[in-house]
């Protein structure tokens, strides 16, 4: 039997009419789609005001980080052309013949460019309803030669998109720094030499979406994530114990703070659980950019945010140590930050 198993979910789909047993969640851990809130969403911040006199935008970003851990941005300075090319080449990649896509396949989570499925096939018991292409993209010249050469425009279109999202990440980190009362450059300086990864998530239609997840509830291990998604809903964010569905708005990005901001801010801002659900009608593509410290960067609460009344809540650690624990542990509702808390 094993020899006929398809490594990728997207190649298995044509042969299934129900969700295979290894994708079925235990009853206590299913999406309960009828309990999701659709009439409320995460804040939308207009970045056009992020200029010299920008205290109101900084305040908005700070409130979104404090109250939601998530916000959407418009007028972010990345052209529609760059966004459309990225989304089109992502779709093209996942519509290539199986043999062509599998040239990128690997189940080794430490490989810097790889196509895989679910989350970490080596450690998990229940699979997630997604395939993904994951790759490093900063410094670009260190990684671009590993990327797929098919579709032919992949490297050019994706490199242009990566440069643009990195510029946006740096602006957002300055704004988040200021919103915490830190120097504008504080967070950028705390990240060492910086790192940037991306994923193209492909969620095929699912015959029984109520039994499984695209990705279960998890928090991101990095600093901030900038998400581009197509027009098919699927992202949900946990707020006050309830799941909120985030409706896609064309030409906006969704930004969420990751575990490292929670630690650097000494819990002033929280890294929030979010998940991806699937549907039975349409494929969905989402493209997160994970902005990260470099592996050797030392993370810990920012000294200006700690004093006698606010002692540091976390130990200092290298980002490499954090990231390894995150991958080994898999996607759990308890976030990885708890492992670095000072008791």
From TrEMBL:
<protein>
    <submittedName>
        <fullName>Oxoglutarate/iron-dependent dioxygenase</fullName>
    </submittedName>
</protein>
<keyword id="KW-0223">Dioxygenase</keyword>
<dbReference type="Pfam" id="PF14226">
    <property type="entry name" value="DIOX_N"/>
</dbReference>
<keyword id="KW-0479">Metal-binding</keyword>
<feature type="domain" description="Fe2OG dioxygenase">
    <location>
        <begin position="194"/>
        <end position="293"/>
    </location>
</feature>
<dbReference type="InterPro" id="IPR005123">
    <property type="entry name" value="Oxoglu/Fe-dep_dioxygenase_dom"/>
</dbReference>
<dbReference type="GO" id="GO:0046872">
    <property type="term" value="F:metal ion binding"/>
</dbReference>
<dbReference type="Pfam" id="PF03171">
    <property type="entry name" value="2OG-FeII_Oxy"/>
</dbReference>
<comment type="similarity">
    <text>Belongs to the iron/ascorbate-dependent oxidoreductase family.</text>
</comment>
<keyword id="KW-0560">Oxidoreductase</keyword>
<keyword id="KW-0408">Iron</keyword>
<dbReference type="InterPro" id="IPR027443">
    <property type="entry name" value="IPNS-like_sf"/>
</dbReference>
<dbReference type="InterPro" id="IPR044861">
    <property type="entry name" value="IPNS-like_FE2OG_OXY"/>
</dbReference>
<dbReference type="InterPro" id="IPR050295">
    <property type="entry name" value="Plant_2OG-oxidoreductases"/>
</dbReference>
<dbReference type="InterPro" id="IPR026992">
    <property type="entry name" value="DIOX_N"/>
</dbReference>
<dbReference type="GO" id="GO:0002229">
    <property type="term" value="P:defense response to oomycetes"/>
</dbReference>
<dbReference type="GO" id="GO:0051213">
    <property type="term" value="F:dioxygenase activity"/>
</dbReference>
């Amino acid at each position: 039997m094993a020899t006929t198993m398809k490594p990728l979910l997207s190649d298995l789909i044509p042969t299934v009419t129900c969700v295979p047993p290894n994708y079925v969640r235990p009853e206590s851990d299913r999406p309960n789609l009828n309990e999701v809130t659709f009439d409320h969403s995460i804040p939308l911040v207009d970045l056009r005001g992020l200029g010299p006199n920008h205290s109101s935008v900084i305040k908005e970003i700070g409130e979104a980080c404090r109250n939601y851990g998530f916000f959407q941005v418009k007028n972010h300075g990345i052209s529609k052309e760059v966004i459309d090319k990225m989304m089109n080449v992502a779709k093209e990649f996942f519509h290539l013949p199986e043999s062509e896509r599998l040239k990128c396949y690997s189940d080794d989570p430490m490989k810097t460019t790889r196509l895989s499925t679910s989350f970490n096939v080596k450690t998990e018991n229940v699979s997630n309803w997604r395939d993904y292409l994951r790759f490093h993209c900063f410094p670009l010249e260190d990684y671009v030669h590993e990327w797929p050469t098919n579709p032919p425009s992949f490297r050019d279109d994706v490199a242009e998109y990566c440069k643009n999202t990195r510029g946006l990440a740096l602006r957002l980190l300055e704004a988040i720094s200021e919103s915490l009362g830190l120097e504008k450059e504080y967070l950028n300086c705390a990240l060492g030499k910086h790192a940037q990864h991306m994923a193209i998530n492909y969620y095929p239609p699912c015959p029984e979406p109520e039994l499984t997840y695209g990705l279960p509830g998890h928090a991101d291990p990095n600093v901030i994530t900038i998400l581009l998604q197509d027009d098919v809903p699927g992202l949900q964010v946990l707020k006050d114990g309830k799941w909120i569905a985030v409706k896609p708005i064309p030409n906006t990005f969704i930004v969420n703070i990751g575990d490292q901001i929670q630690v650097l801010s000494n819990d002033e801002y929280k890294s929030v659980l979010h998940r991806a659900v699937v549907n039975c009608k349409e494929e969905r593509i989402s493209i997160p950019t994970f902005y990260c410290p470099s592996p050797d960067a030392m993370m810990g609460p920012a000294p200006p945010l700690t004093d006698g009344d606010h002692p540091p809540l976390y130990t200092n650690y290298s980002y490499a140590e954090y990231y390894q624990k995150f991958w080994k542990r898999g996607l759990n509702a308890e976030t990885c930050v708890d492992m670095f808390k000072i008791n």
